[in-house]
Structures are given as C-alpha cells and as structure tokens.
Amino acid sequence: MSGRPERLWPLFAEIQTLDGVGPKTAQALGQVGIDAIRDLLFTLPHSGIDRRVRDTIRGADMPATLTVPVVVGQHRPPRKRGGAYRIEVDDAAMRFQITYFHARPEYLMRLLPPGSRRLVSGRVELFDGVPQMTHPDHVVEPSESGTIPEYEPVYPLTAGVTQKIMTRSVANALAKTPELAEWIDQALVAREGWPAWKDALVAAHAPGNAADLAASAISRARLAYDELLAHQLTLALARRARRARPGKITHGDGHLRAIVRASLPFAPTGAQLRALEEISADMARPERMNRLLQGDVGSGKTLVALLALLIAVEAGGQGVMMAPTEILARQHFDGLAPMARTAGVTLDLLTGRDKGGDRARKLAELASGEIDILVGTHAVFQDDVAFADLRLAIVDEQHRFGVRQRMELGRKGEAADVLVMTATPIPRSLALAQYGDMDVSVLDEKPPGRQPVRTALISEERMAEIVDHLRGAISEGRQAYWVCPLVEESENSDLAAAEARFAHLRGALGEGAVGLVHGQLPPADKDAAMARFSAGKTAVLVATTVIEVGVNVPKASIMVIERAEAFGLAQLHQLRGRVGRGTAASTCVLLYRPPLGEAGMRRLTTLRETEDGFRIAEVDLEMRGAGDVIGVAQSGVPRFRIADLERQAGLMAIAQSDARRLLEADPGLVTERGQAARTLLWLMRQDEAIRLISVG
Ligand code: ADP
Ligand code: MG
C-alpha cells in the first residue's frame, strides 16, 4: 500500500508549525505525547468554565468564576514593593476590587483606565468580607465581549503550557483540519446521529455546557468510536493474517475422547461441550485456530483442554499444554495421568527441573512422536524442544504469560492450533480490546452440585478464635489453606511471615497437621508439600500466593487469607476459587488488619457479596482503571485518548463486529468506505495494520 494519504499530511505536521507554538511549547507538549497536530486535536478539554455575562457579582456563591461589565474606579498602587495593586470597580449593583501582584502600573492604567467600561471575567473570592477578583482571565472592552466564550473549554495542562496557548493552538490546528470521507457504517452513523469526523472534532473542542463534555455526548462518542474502530480493524486484520497462514486439518474420530468420558465420574457441563464443539470445529478447518477459552475459577477448563488434546492424538499428532508454574504443571500432569493411562495415551512432563539424560530422553521421545501429550512450564518452548507433529498448543492461565510467550507458542509447531485459557474474568469490553483478534469460547456454567462459598470478614485481632475454629474443623476431617500475603517489599520478610505462621499453627494444631509451601522451597519439597496436602495427610497448608492460580484440591473447603486487604480483588477471587470445588460447603475467611481503608473495605465487601467473577472484575475495573487491570503495557491494548473502555464497552462490541464485517465485505479495503477506513488507520497511527492490509 502506498504511503500516508495526502489529505492527512497537515495533521501529521509537527506541532511547531502552528502559529503561536514555539520550541518551548512544542517541547512541553512533546513531554505528554503531543508531537503532531493530530495529537493536539485528539486532546480534548476535560472541563469548562461558564463565562456567561451577568449584571453583578452580588448573590453569587463565592468563590466562583464570574463575568461582569464594570465601570473602572480608582487605582490604588501597593504601599510597599510586592504588595497588592488594587483597582476599584462597580458593577450594576455593587463595588468590588480587582487585584494584581507584580504588574506594571502603566500596563494596568492602559488595561483598565479609570472611568472606562470593561467586561471582566475571573475568579472572585471574599477577603475580609470584600469580594476580590485576582488577576482576571479576561479584560475586554464592551465592544469585544464576543471574544469571551460563554463556555470556555479547559484542557489538561502540562508545565509550560497555558490554557490560552492550548485554546489558540487548537483553533489553529482545527483551521488546518480537512474534512474526511466517512469510514463508519452509514447505518450506524444515522442510528446514533453522529456528526461527520471534522464536525465532531470542532464540536468536541467547543463544548457549550458540562453535558457536552460527557463521554456520551455525540461528538465525543463518535470520536471515541473512531479510536475503537481503528483498534478493532487492526485486530481483525491480524486475525485474518494469522488465519491465512496454512494450518493442518485435525480431525479426530472420537475414540479416545469416548474412553475418557466413559471413565469420568461426572458428565461434562453444557458449557464444556459447547466449547469442545467450537474447538473441534476449528481444529478440523485448514486455518489455524486462535481461540481463547474463558472460564471463571472452577468452571472446568482442564477437562476441555484434555479432550481437545485427545483430538490431536486421535488424528495421529501431538499436543502440548503449558502452565505458568511448576506446581500447576505437575498438578495437570498428575490429574491427566490416570485418564491418559485409561486411553492408552503417552503423557509426559517437562519443566525447568529436567536436566541431562532425563531431559535428552524426553526430547528424543517428543521428536520421534512417542510422547503424545506434553505438559510443562515454559520449558516446553526452549529452542531444542521439537515435536514430531504438533497439532495443538494450549496455554493455561494465559494472563500469567506475556504476549511474547503467546507468540512464541504460535511459532512452535509451524501450523499448530492455539488455545489459550484464562480464568481472569475480564469484563467484555477489555476482553474485546485485548483478545479481539481471537475467537472466544466461554464456560459460563459451573459444574453442578457446587455450593456457594460462605465468605466472612474478620479482624485479625480475633486470630485466636479463628485458630480454635480451625482446630474444630480439622477434627471433623476438613482441610484448609492458610494464605500469607506478599505485603512487604522484600521476599525474605514475606517468607519469614509465612514461616512464623507455619510455626504458630503447628504449635496450635499439632506438628503433623500443618504443611508449608512457598516459592523459595526447593522444587522437590514443594511437590512433597502439595502431595501431602492433596492426599489429606496434612490438614492445613500454609502458603504464599504460589497457590493462587489453578491449584485443585477439591476436598479442601476452608480458605483463610491473612491481611486480605493487601491483595487485589482479582487475586482474592482466584485464591477463594481454590475452595468450593467439591460438594462440601466451603468457607473463606478474610482476615484483615484494622483499621480498614475505604478501598480495602470496598474490595473485601465486594468479595463477601458475590462469587460472580465478572461482577468482581467490573468492580475491579471501576476501582483501578483499565490500564491496571490488564497491564496495558504488556497486553498490547493501546491507551485510547478519547475512548473510555470502562464506560464504552457497548461501543467496543459494535466496533468489533463492524470491523470484521467491513473486512469480509471488502477484504482489500478498496471500496469507497474501505479507502476511508485506510485513512482512519493512518490517522490513528495503526502502522501495523496498514502493513497487514496487503496480506489479505
Ligand atoms: P478451572 O476452570 O479453574 O481450571 P478445573 O478444570 O481445575 O477448573 O476444574 C475444577 C474441578 O471441577 C475439578 O476438580 C474438576 O475435576 C471438576 N469438574 C470439571 N468438570 C466437571 C463437571 N462437568 N462436573 C463435575 N465436576 C467437574
Ligand atoms: Mg485451571
């Protein structure tokens, strides 16, 4: 594709080419990412000042910004240097003062000559009962009253740039802005009543009242949609490019799946079957699968993964599943081993722990195709790990991995289908922003028979009571996790806290009853501690957050989280998800250190009130903002200048289907609208997408 469309050139000119923007201003704006004229245009006012003219300041609720015509009275220069220079003025009903500091008297005499009429606008405050306007924002002759906007936009500022400079630069920038052909679906534009792009920009920079500043104001909504559409077009192009690379047709005959399903003590849920249906259909297609399996904690993703892996084996190929921690990789291995044995499938485990001859043997068996399914940590991606015929690669708990690892996975096994699984119930808007290039299956149904987890907030001052309760519970054969937080900066002191709690609980509950697991333990000790707990030999497992993700010991029914206020919502939800996995009623105790701050309180009460991961994710998003929730830097989701992911989830969904539809109807983006869409991509600096257009 040719270069940037000529019509856009003025918008990509450097900010310094604008009248009134010197090198200093340009540099200051550059600091906040405003380099080109387009960047300035997309920096919208965040508030506004009402400057409607009134007769008098009398009766106004001060302090306030007020605009009144006045007759200028006496000047009273300061008595000592640096003091206030006061000018008396009369409006229609009362006298007040305009005050300046460090102003030259000649200048003030010219600006406000005694006896003249002026329109003044500025902030008025009471000092010793006398209203005073200090350094008015505007002083104009009555004939020029039109130069004071009734509602003045206020821009987010950076050091070295004043509102005046911003307002003037934006006006100059708008004057250079061309009209652009419409890239949004006409029907949508009509339905929403959206203005054309340039009109929307002009309107967004000239709000008439506070309502015009809301994200829902039509001009802003349109500009937000432009950003979302550009992002979704990029994702749609990426998705198409990925699909265009040839994959393998993997068609299982179902015989292994049938054996495993017959051996299960339960029936798959409807949601699990639906997801499998979607996965097997993808695998049977010649394009590569790129699918996200989203399911809250405990929704049964592992079974879906196993059955999907069996499809690969049924077709004579191999599968690999990568887990983010060694504990989890081992757990998957242990959990899948009996089923693999039943089905006569060869399963193996590869982690960073495998060294020397053992590792060499596993690699050889992978290369020869003897191993059907490999489970492991990111060790499975090392360069020397080669498969005979890799058909399916699964990443469990994908949010634990960076985007780079997700991409590495795609490269391994040239044509392998990719399934990523995540328990992070990110709200739909974020899922679309982050995974818009993928197809999504959702496990929206939990296995039957689960009982709600009763969640209690208890002050750690009542620790002794909790321990007493725990003693009672374990004497009835129940099992508990006790999670110690990562509160301190240094890992060592956290460890010390966990070890101290371990010693304390052993003292209180008996030596043999309590185990300990944390990240610093030698791997073999970690395994042993998990295995003892899993087998019911220890009743209580003291742990750091290493158990946060994926761990599955269905019999454990009590979760105690110490200093719960120190954890994030998503993390607490994951931790609590370790219990409530069996049929027994479960309890989660959130121990907090009083006094509980407002945010901590909101997190803990949210958790007490709901187990719905999506609801929890929404509160999380509300409290922390989109960037923090998904880690914008590594997720590849851009920071939108105008769009607000938290509040414009609906628009994001529309943008996704609009983008996909446009690409289906016009794969080369050659129609009139297609051309306009290219312009949008250039405008939004979606260089990546522009490269991809030619691939389609
Ligand atoms: P997650 O989605 O959090 O990874 P798991 O796959 O670990 O969940 O499953 C949680 C528990 O639910 C496991 O003990 C698993 O055996 C069980 N399970 C999975 N599917 C079903 C089902 N259809 N019916 C009953 N229990 C199930
Ligand atoms: Mg899991």
UniProtKB/TrEMBL annotation:
Residues 466-627 form the Helicase C-terminal domain. One of its GO terms (biological process) is DNA repair. The keyword NADP does not apply. PROSITE patterns: HELICASE_ATP_BIND_1, HELICASE_CTER. InterPro entries: DEAD/DEAH_box_helicase_dom (IPR011545), Helicase_ATP-bd (IPR014001), Helicase_C-like (IPR001650), NA-bd_OB-fold (IPR012340), P-loop_NTPase (IPR027417), RecG/Mfd (IPR047112), RecG_dom3_C (IPR045562), RecG_wedge (IPR033454). The keyword DNA repair applies. This is Probable DNA 3'-5' helicase RecG. It comes from Citreimonas salinaria. The lineage of its organism: Bacteria, Pseudomonadati, Pseudomonadota, Alphaproteobacteria, Rhodobacterales.
